[in-house]
Design goal:
22% of the residues are buried. It is elongated, with a radius of gyration of 28 Å. The protein has a single domain, classed as Tetratricopeptide repeat domain (Serine Threonine Protein Phosphatase 5, Tetratricopeptide repeat), CATH 1.25.40.10. By secondary structure, the protein is mostly helical. It has helices spanning 3-25, 45-59, 63-76, 82-93, 97-110, 124-144, 149-166. The protein is built from 7 helices and no strands.
Length: 170
């Protein structure tokens, strides 16, 4: 045996002893159970009632009552995404695609699940269609008046939403 063979044999013995120590002396962890995703329990059931009421008002074309309730909801729940999303729906009923896109942006920033296909909240197709409708309104407006601040801001939100949609799971 030459020197390289002795080094190889010593390394093999060391690795075998190390493996034996790992098997014999290391405490075994209890088997991990697969945990299902935990459902978030809403603390305020009144919020869910208000959301369903607004949806019913929108479906019944009672836009003024829905808007009043949404203003109250946004004031009371500023960190919930659903009121902003419903305001976007309200603006779509009023044929304001740019305003709807702005509200959808707020909703998506607060809760990206609106763009996740695996989520119950997925609304990616509606958001994408609204963003394209907003583009169809922004481009002719900017062609007519290039320094319109509101349309320039809307175009910036349009590009932002395109990036969000492209990076989403939908």
């Amino acid at each position: 045996m030459d020197r390289l063979d002795r080094i190889s044999a010593a390394a093999a013995v060391i690795l075998a002893v190390w493996a034996l120590l790992l098997v014999v002396f290391v405490e075994r962890q209890p088997p991990r159970r697969h945990q299902k995703e935990q459902q978030v329990v809403r603390v305020d059931p009144a919020f869910d009632k208000k959301v369903s009421l607004v949806k019913n008002l929108l479906a019944g074309n009672n836009l003024d009552q829905a808007e009043a309730l949404l203003v109250e909801m946004v004031a009371n729940y500023p960190y919930e995404a659903m009121p902003f999303f419903l305001r976007g729906d309200l603006l779509l009923y009023r044929q304001d695609a740019i305003g709807a896109m702005m509200e959808y942006r707020k909703a998506v920033d607060l809760n990206p699940d609106f763009l996740d296909k695996k989520s119950e909240l997925f609304q990616g197709k509606k958001i994408k269609k609204t963003v394209e409708e907003a583009r169809a309104m922004i481009e002719p407006g900017l062609a007519a008046k290039q320094d319109d601040g509101a349309l320039l801001a809307a175009r910036a939100v349009y590009y932002y939403m395109l990036r969000k949609i492209a990076g989403s799971c939908g």
